[in-house]
Design brief:
single chain, alpha+beta, Arc Repressor Mutant, subunit A, Beta-Lactamase, 3 domains, 5-stranded antiparallel beta sheet, 12 helices
Length: 359
């Protein structure tokens, strides 16, 4: 009996052929299909011989037989072994430089005229969803030291204000504020002007600390303005929410075609829409210091509703600093090589796309 770590070279080649056929068609793979492929290291063999090898692979927990079909499909363990094989060995196939030129051109053209961290990450989720036929993810985390560029307040209703904060990294944060008391349009404009004139280039934490000191120091009519400014700023950028994460998700409809029951699909969609849940999920698996693309099969350990799905993700850096995470969530039957290389390519060129979008 073959064991997962001790399968023969011929069995490994057969398993690779089965996985790649299943990825391409979504159909269980029979011995006749493999016999016709004459795949890679597979010598000419009869269907009967291949059936025997497939039986060994099934006993090793690498193939399973759905229902009464004559064909077999790979298990999660087989896909994990396949990804390790793609990434290692004498001829690794996972390298951003191996992404087909057509895909690179598609990615590059998608970002023409797109500028700023937020806009680039939003486009990234769309590009990854398109290339992978999975769910494209992009999460931007504003560093605590990210500097204020501009703030604007708009009055929506009595004691309700829309606040928009733009940072120098290109992040745009908007929030509807519920104030303790109403402020006029003039008071809101004065508050915004005060912040923009005095604190442009300051980090959000520096602004918070300096406003607190100014309020403590002033005992004049000037304090009324400061109190309003401080209330607006504290509600706009709460201390508990820095650094701020912006989450972009696209391609959820791509999961509808996966083989999952209706109730679990509903749970998955709810989880994908709960953006904070996604931030926690990616933070659990993706280390901002890592250099390579990571593939995670055991998502259910952090999110039970993600059972049967796979995460492929990598940090996105700008100016040598981590600016977030990009990735794809999809079924086990995804094109691993193309998706991993696309994520790797985007993570490497993120810096250039943000800072030099027209190159």
């Amino acid at each position: 009996m073959a064991e997962e770590g001790r399968i023969t070279a011929r069995q490994r080649a057969i398993l690779t052929a089965i996985i790649e056929s299943y990825i391409a068609t979504g159909e269980p793979v029979g011995s006749g299909t493999i016999a016709r492929l004459a795949y890679g290291e597979i010598p000419a063999m009869s269907s009967a011989t291949i059936r025997n090898e497939m039986a060994e692979l099934a006993e090793a927990g690498l193939l399973e037989q759905p229902h009464t079909s004559a064909g077999r499909i790979p298990t999660a363990r087989a896909f994990r072994m396949y990804v390790e094989q793609l990434s290692g060995g004498a001829h690794p196939r996972i390298d951003a430089g191996r992404l087909p030129a057509r895909s690179r051109r598609q990615i590059d053209s998608s970002f023409v005229g797109v500028a700023g961290t937020q806009a680039v990450l939003e486009r990234t989720s769309h590009v990854l969803a398109t290339l992978s036929s999975g769910v494209g993810l992009a999460i931007a985390t504003a560093a605590e030291g990210d500097a204020l560029e501009h703030v604007h307040f708009s009055r929506l209703a009595p004691a309700r204000v829309l606040a928009v904060v733009v940072t120098r990294s290109g992040m745009v944060r908007d929030r509807v504020l519920a104030l303790d008391h109403d402020l006029t349009l003039g008071e809101l404009e004065t508050a915004a002007n005060f912040l923009n004139e005095h604190f442009r280039g300051w980090s959000v934490e520096q602004v918070r600390a300096e406003l607190a000191r100014m309020v403590e120091r002033e005992r004049t009519e000037y304090q009324r303005l400061l109190n309003s400014v401080q209330q607006l700023w504290v509600k706009t950028v709460p201390a508990a929410e820095t650094p701020v994460a912006s989450v972009y998700v696209e391609g959820v409809a791509n999961l509808i075609g996966t083989q999952v029951d209706g109730e679990r699909l509903r749970e998955m969609l709810v989880a994908l829409e709960a953006k904070q849940r996604l931030v926690e999920l990616l933070n659990a698996y993706i280390d901002s210091r890592q250099e390579s693309v990571r593939v995670v099969f055991d998502l259910e350990e952090q999110a039970p509703e993600m059972a049967g799905l796979v995460l492929i993700a990598a940090p996105a850096r700008m100016g040598g600093e981590n600016r977030g995470t990009i990735g794809v969530i999809g079924s086990t039957r995804m094109d691993y090589e193309n998706t991993m290389n696309a994520v790797g390519y985007l993570s490497r060129v993120f810096d250039r796309i943000v800072l030099h979008p027209n190159e």
